[in-house]
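Quick note —
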Amino acid sequence: MKSILLIGYGNPIRMDDGVGWYISGIIQKRFGNIIDIIQADQLSVEMVDNIADRSLIIFVDAHISDEDDWIKSVEITPDSNPGLITHIIKPANLLAFCLSIHNKSPKAYLYSVKGTIFDFGEELSEQTHKSADETIEIISHLISNSLKSDN
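Predicted structure written out below.
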């Protein structure tokens, strides 16, 4: 098991909702031999065992916003509150499950890219694509620094 896991999630056939898959695919090409990658339609409790023994988890998804916030990044901490929509698991919920089951929770970040078009299709909109490429560079830097500090 590799020390870093990147989880790219969303719906890859709903245009900008597939940005997590797009980013994780590029990161796979760059770092696939030294980190693990999961691509999924959504987060699930079955992922808990996959994250427990990692030093770093990177979640990548799309977000919807009326703001000019094309790239968001936030450190995630465990939170067992499911919120109003209980059938959707958030990264913080996964970390809380991990803490509850394994008595530990890895360092984790969520990177999300603003999506504007969620029609059927596999292409990203122009601005989402541009922001995704910027996010890839940010995540690549984080991975490189994390790998250096692990050695």
